[in-house]
C-alpha cells in the first residue's frame, strides 16, 4: 500500500530547488511542496508555471478565468480556493468568480464566454471544435488560443496531483478567502455544474 504523500518541508528540499524557494520569497505553497518530492520535475515545470500563473499572452484576468474553470471541471478545491484568492487580487469581482461555477456563460462578455466554452471543450472533448475555434478566433490571436490550451493543460496537471493526494489548501490562503468561498459550497456548485452537463 503506497504511503500518503504530503507536502515536503523546506529543510528536506533538494538543494537544486533553492532558486524556486527564492522565487517564492522563502514561502512556497503546498502544491510546490508536493512537487518537491520530484525535484527534476519541479525544476523543469517552474518556467511554465511562472508563464501560466500570469496568464501568458492572455493577461492575468483571462488567465484566471481559464484556471478557475479548470478547477470547477476537475472539482479541485485547492485549485479553486487558490485562484479565487489570485482572481480577487487581479481585479475579478466575487460575482464574476462565482459565475464561473455555472455552465451558462451568457453573463460574460462574448470573448470571455467563448474562452470558458473553449476550456469546457478541452476538458470534455480534448479539442476545440472547428465552429468554436472560429468563434474564438474572432476575439483572440493564435498565440492566445495556444495559451488557453497550454494554461488549461498546466492546471489539469496540478488538479490531478491535488486530487490524487488530497492536498490541503494553504492556511494563509484559506484565511484570505474564507468569507468568499468554502470547500462545501464549492463542492455543491461543482456537482451542480457537472449534473447539468450530463
Biggest beta-sheet profile: none
User: Uncertain regions: pLDDT < 50 for 5+ in a row?
Assistant: none
Structural class: mainly alpha
Tally of extended strands?
Answer: 0
What percent strand? under 5%
Tally of individual helices: 11
- Overall pLDDT: 95
**Rounded Rg:** 17 Å
Cα shape: globular
Oligomer: single chain
Can you put this structure into words, describing what you see?
The protein is mainly α and 198 residues long. Helix content is 66%, strand content 0%. It is built from eleven helices and no strands. The chain has helices at 18-23, 30-35, 39-53, 60-74, 77-89, 94-99, 110-125, 130-137, 142-165, 171-177, 183-197. Helix 5 crosses helix 10.
Note the main attributes of this structure.
single chain; 198 residues; mainly alpha; 11 helices; 0% strand; globular
Amino acid at each position: 500500500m503506497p504511503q500518503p504523500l504530503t507536502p515536503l518541508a523546506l529543510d528536506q528540499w533538494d538543494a537544486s530547488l533553492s532558486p524556486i524557494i527564492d522565487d517564492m520569497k522563502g514561502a512556497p505553497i503546498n502544491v510546490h511542496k508536493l512537487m518537491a518530492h520530484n525535484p527534476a520535475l519541479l525544476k523543469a515545470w517552474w518556467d511554465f508555471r511562472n508563464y501560466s500563473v500570469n496568464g501568458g499572452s492572455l493577461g492575468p484576468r483571462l488567465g484566471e478565468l481559464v484556471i478557475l474553470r479548470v478547477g470547477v471541471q476537475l472539482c479541485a478545491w485547492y485549485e479553486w480556493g487558490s485562484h479565487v484568492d489570485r482572481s480577487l487580487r487581479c481585479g475579478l469581482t466575487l460575482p464574476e468568480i462565482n459565475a464561473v461555477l455555472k455552465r451558462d456563460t451568457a453573463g460574460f462578455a462574448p470573448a470571455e464566454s467563448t474562452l470558458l466554452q473553449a476550456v469546457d471543450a478541452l476538458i470534455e472533448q480534448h479539442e476545440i471544435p472547428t465552429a468554436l475555434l472560429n468563434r474564438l478566433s474572432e476575439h483572440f490571436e493564435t498565440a492566445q488560443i495556444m495559451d488557453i490550451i497550454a494554461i488549461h493543460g498546466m492546471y489539469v496537471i496540478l488538479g490531478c496531483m491535488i486530487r490524487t493526494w488530497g492536498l490541503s489548501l494553504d492556511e494563509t490562503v484559506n484565511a484570505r478567502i474564507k468569507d468568499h468561498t468554502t470547500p462545501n459550497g464549492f463542492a455543491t456548485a461543482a456537482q451542480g455544474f457537472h449534473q447539468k452537463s450530463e
